[in-house]
Amino acid sequence: MHLQIVITAKLRRNESFVFSWKDAAELGSGRSTIWLHPSSTLYYRYLGSRLPTINRDWIDVLMESANSSGGLFFTPEPGTAPVTPPARRS
Question: What is the pLDDT of residue 82?
Fold first, then answer.
């Protein structure tokens, strides 16, 4: 929901930007980036019917990133521990 708020705000202003995130270890631990333009077709899908609580501080962090020259970079919610994926079994 937080990303949807930030991305929608940028696109409503007719602003194009890049969106990047870190890939999981299973995908090579790299980074992925996409270019978003106001004519982009986006689809947001959520599991469950519960509306999330909006963390205004996180919106501000994401929006600051989106307005930077490097573009929007997904970061964990402030005040939460990063999610560590379970170890892979050999």
Answer: 56
